[in-house]
Design a protein that fits this description.
The complex is a heterotrimer.
Chain A (H helix, E strand, L loop, with lengths): L29 H5 L4 H29 L10 H20 L2 H14 L8 H23 L13 H5 L4 H28 L12 H33 L12 H35 L6 H14 L15 H29 L8 H24 L1 H7 L3 H31 L5 H27 L14 H31 L46 H17 L4 H7 L24
Helix pairs in contact in A: 2-3, 2-4, 2-5, 2-16, 3-5, 4-7, 4-8, 4-14, 5-7, 7-8, 8-9, 8-10, 9-11, 9-12, 9-14, 10-11, 11-12, 12-14, 12-15, 14-15, 15-16, 17-18
Chain B lengths: L12 H5 L6 H23 L5 H23 L7 H18 L2 H5 L12
Helix pairs in contact in B: 2-3
Chain C lengths: L26 H36 L1 H7 L5 H26 L3 H31 L22 H37 L9 H25 L5
Helix pairs in contact in C: 1-2, 1-5, 1-6, 2-5, 3-4, 3-6, 4-5, 5-6
The chains are: A mainly alpha, B mainly alpha, C mainly alpha.
């Protein structure tokens, strides 16, 4: 299959020679991998780990979907069924989606995008991976040797008093996973504040960095609450300290308040990084600066902040007061606004751009459509009256899978494809990638759209046995699941294939703009041969329309590239013959710094 | 860039380490203030002020002042960058947001529902 | 690879310092990064304890008379002594950090040791308080009994007083756990300082431990009035 060749607008760069030393091959020992503090290697470790947990979570739900083709059960006992969907939820939420983009793409790209040699706390980064691995292994062990049947939401008093399954071990595992994400969040926040390259002000950052920053804020502020909440279940099971025990005057709904105080912002942890990826993909494959950059940047922060005020919409049908319900309902409508702002801005970016339908772009376009459906159906659930009908039905399941799978996972796949040449130095077969994107899109819709219907018709969620009239929808959904499985397996195969047989990539096969595309593919251990000094605004693409400032940024970027690649010196010099071109033509002055900026 | 306080030092390494050295008397004054407040809060408890509300307010106010003293002076937020004190403030603000959960419990009886008492 | 072609502005050379991490440009950046990072971690700790404070706030709002009655079983004098002990330990810790910054090794060691003694004193006093609860059968679980022997306060439902003690043990237990962790970190620091380890030539580890310790003190500053000083009207 043909691989990517240079396109109009591709920025120059040196192809790696034989024997090029990068972060991947400077040492092959196990010790150098397991004791690495290089953020890029840790990103790769995470990439491999979360692929395993994803596969296990997928197997669990594969069994569930198989089981649900028959309304009266097929081969699973009731208890086993409960354990299967619980395993799916716990592994997918805590051990796949929460770390996915931040720990893989975020770890790899954030330091490079801000022009640093590494994150602020490299050893903390390694600790975060170890916490994740120990937590994941504990959780998988707990699932395989006895299982947990409380659902990933661990509602009391079932989880704290009545369940006889491995609740304690699983919660401790989730606790460790939570600390892993807190460590990542601390690292990202400090790196973004303190380690940006000279000239790289906040509003020159790629939107991916803004998204990572907003995600990190949520991780830091929300995760500790769920950590202690789940620990209280353990403490109740083991030490009889029953904070949620009704016999002692405790309120199980307090558990739900505390649990969802984190878990709602957690879903924004899962989607915001995806939105950051999409901004990068849309900009590159429309060859245009993102429309309304500051709106998109601030909307990431707005989602992070407002997302902390809406948790009560998970408690509409509990004894939560009606007043609280009304407040949470209106706030949940408000939180949709920043997301909508992003979608409008992405669409405006694509409009009159020079669109290149490469495989990452297909994932990005899929994201926009599916996220739109998922987000809008969330509004149905935010409405008090309709939620009474739809709560705990398949409608809710379809809603969150549209945003988390149709949204976050498609963004993750798009990002992995987009930055694959950077991470591995290899190109993957583009034809197969496009095919996989299409199969995934079709399989996804076939799996989850019927669930909207059957949920609206009244089929409750988490039920093993359901009324016969819903069977046809379940069969459609299960058929779609098998198509989706194919769609996910194909990239696994060709991406692994490309590691050995894929064509070697230059620094910038997509012709994208951004500091990461100026480094080698794969980068050297310290990312840059020399400290970058940034004098251009974000996304310095060749503008369709001759905009003066955009032209300046473009030329500043070209000059920077010319500065680091002497082989293409002449072209760079020729390129910068324009009126306000190279800094050499101007009186030499320092780039704008943010010394006066305390933040 | 803040200038560090001048302190008689044992070695020239203070410059190299760029430490913001807080003068000792600040710590001593803070400590004495904390002890005084401590005495005040225990005294208020034993002297039984007029109403429960007053007792609660006094005890919490004193606790908040003590915490502020520890945060500003012992934890040197007073002498740190703006980013540090923004983070310190965010922590406490977010705590207040978490506490707004109690408004659910307080408002449960406000809209009467037939046949149900909160 | 240098850039003779275009005159891209160069930044100032990296500070030469053995304590400077490879990812940083100068000590000021490193110091500020560590402080901001530590404060971000403390924000997570605030939210961690905060959730328990929320549970406390909820149940005290729901059962005010029960909490008031149950708090008679706590010893205000011991609680007050513990508070003074922790405040003093914060003071000595601040001195130790000052000494680390001014390279005054003797005072640094002295301050750390004094802080550790205070921490141990706190734990011992807390141990006495908890032992008293065990004796009076006020530990939540199957052995809980209300009212305890010699109780002379108002009559309240026994099962709800158990909630007070659930929260009491959960919060003071979590706090004590943090005190123990702080103590262990200080032991490690002390050993490193006594062995003249290069890891503590730089003052930042002591300063970060100090921040953690002051945070532990702040938590207790709030725990004390909330549990021991519940007004009795």
């Amino acid at each position: 299959m043909a691989s990517i060749t240079a396109r109009p607008g591709e920025l120059p760069g040196e192809f790696p020679e034989e024997g090029h030393v990068s972060y991947l091959n400077w040492s092959h020992t196990l010790r150098s991998w397991l004791l690495t503090v290089d953020h890029k290697r840790i990103a790769v470790l995470y990439l491999v780990s979360i692929t395993f947990t994803f596969a296990l979570g997928a197997v669990a739900i594969g069994l569930v979907r198989l089981e649900l083709t028959q309304p009266n059960g097929l081969f699973l006992e009731n208890d086993t069924y409960n354990k299967m969907f619980s395993m799916h939820g716990i592994l997918m939420v805590f051990f796949f989606l929460v770390p996915s983009i931040p720990a893989t793409l975020g770890n790899f790209l954030l330091p490079i995008m801000v022009g640093a040699r590494d994150l602020a706390f490299p050893r903390l980064n390694l600790l975060s991976w170890y916490l994740y691995i120990i937590g994941a292994l504990m959780a998988i062990g707990a699932m395989l040797f006895g299982g947990v049947d409380t659902g990933w939401t661990f509602y009391t008093p079932y989880s704290s008093i009545y369940s006889n399954t491995n609740v304690t071990v699983t919660i401790l595992a989730v606790f460790l996973g939570g600390f892993s994400s807190i460590a990542t969040g601390i690292n990202f926040i400090v790196t973004t504040h303190k380690m940006r390259a000279p000239g790289l002000t906040w509003f020159r950052l790629p939107l991916f960095v803004w998204a990572m920053y907003a995600t990190s804020i949520i991780m830091v502020l929300g995760t500790p609450v769920v950590a202690i909440t789940l620990s209280l279940i353990v403490v109740e099971r083991v030490l009889h300290i029953g904070i949620f025990d009704p016999a002692l005057g405790g309120d199980p709904v307090l558990f739900q308040h505390m649990f969802w105080f984190y878990s709602h912002p957690a879903v924004y942890i899962m989607i915001l990084p995806g939105m950051g990826v999409i901004s990068e993909l849309i900009a590159c494959f429309s060859r245009k600066r993102i429309f309304g950059y500051s709106f998109v940047a601030f909307s990431s922060l707005a989602i992070a902040i407002i997302g902390f005020f809406v948790w009560g919409h998970h408690l509409f049908v509990t004894s939560q007061s009606m007043y609280a319900g009304m407040v949470f309902s209106i706030l949940s409508f408000l939180v949709a606004i920043p997301s909508a702002i992003k979608v409008f801005n992405w669409t405006a970016t694509i409009y009159k751009g020079r669109v290149w339908l490469a495989s990452p772009m297909l994932y990005a376009l899929g994201f926009i459509g599916l996220f739109l459906i998922g987000g809008l159906t969330g509004l149905f659930l935010a409405t008090l009256g309709t939620d009474v009908h739809l709560h705990d039905t398949y409608f809710v399941i379809a809603h969150f899978h549209y945003v988390m799978v149709g949204g976050a996972i498609m963004a993750y796949l798009g990002g992995v494809h987009f930055w694959w040449p950077k991470i591995t130095g290899r190109l993957y077969p583009e034809g197969w990638a496009k095919l996989a994107a299409g199969i995934t899109f079709i399989g996804f819709n076939l799996t989850f759209f019927p669930q909207f219907v059957v949920g609206y018709l009244g089929n409750p969620r988490r039920y093993h046995i359901y009324p016969e009239e819903f069977q046809v929808w379940h069969i459609l959904s299960s058929a779609g699941a098998s198509v989706l499985a194919v769609g996910y397996t194909i990239p696994l195969i060709y991406l692994l294939w490309s590691l050995k047989y894929g064509e070697r990539s230059g620094p910038n096969p997509w012709g994208a703009a951004g500091l990461e595309w100026t480094t080698d593919s794969p980068p050297i251990s310290h990312n840059f041969h020399e400290q970058p000094v940034v004098t251009w605004e974000a996304y310095p693409y060749n503008p369709e329309v001759e905009e003066f400032e955009a032209q300046q940024d473009r030329e500043a970027f070209q000059a920077y590239l010319g500065g680091i690649q002497p082989a293409v010196e002449e072209e760079a010099a020729l390129d910068t013959q324009g009126p306000h071109a190279s800094p050499a033509a101007q009186p030499h002055h320092a780039p704008p710094t943010d010394e006066d900026e305390d933040l | 860039m803040r200038h560090h306080e001048e302190e008689p030092t044992a070695s020239p390494y203070v410059e190299h380490a760029h430490a913001h050295v807080v003068p000792l008397r600040v710590y001593v004054i803070a400590y004495i203030a904390l002890l005084v407040l401590m005495g005040g809060t225990v005294l208020a408890y034993y002297k039984h002020p007029a109403s429960t509300l007053a007792s609660n307010v006094i005890a919490l106010a004193i606790a908040v002042i003590k915490a502020v003293i520890v945060v500003l002076f012992f934890m040197q937020v007073r002498y740190s960058t703006r980013l540090t004190w923004v983070w310190a403030a965010i922590g406490f603000i977010w705590l207040i947001i978490l506490f707004s959960t109690v408004t659910d419990y307080i408002s449960r009886g406000w809209i009467p529902i037939k046949g149900w008492t909160p | 690879m240098s850039s003779e072609a275009a005159e891209v502005p160069r930044f100032r050379p990296r500070e030469a310092d053995e304590d400077l991490g490879v990812q940083y440009e100068d000590m000021e950046q490193q110091n500020e990064s560590y402080i901001v990072g530590m404060w971000t971690f403390l924000v997570t700790e605030i939210m961690f304890f905060g959730a328990l404070f929320l549970a406390y706030l909820t149940y005290r709002t729901l059962y005010p008379s029960v909490f008031m009655a149950a708090h008679y079983e706590l010893d205000v004098k011991l609680g007050a002594i513990n508070t003074v002990v922790l405040l003093t330990s914060s003071f000595s810790m601040a001195i130790a950090v000052w000494a680390a910054q001014t390279k005054n090794r003797a005072i640094e060691i002295g301050g750390l040791i004094f802080t550790m003694i205070c921490a141990c004193a706190f734990l011992v006093i807390k141990g006495f308080e908890w032992a008293a609860k065990f004796e009076h059968r006020l530990v939540p679980g199957p052995l809980y009994a209300w009212p305890p022997h010699g109780y002379a306060g108002p009559v309240v439902p026994g099962n709800e007083t158990q909630m007070f003690f659930c929260l009491y043990f959960a919060m003071t237990g979590l706090h004590a756990l943090h005190v123990i962790i702080g103590l262990l970190v200080m032991i490690v620091l002390l050993v490193l300082i006594l062995k003249d380890s290069p890891l503590v030539r730089y003052y930042m580890p002591v300063e970060m431990t100090g921040l953690y310790w002051h945070f532990v003190d702040v938590v207790w500053i709030f725990l004390f009035p909330l549990y021991y000083l519940i007004p009795s009207h």
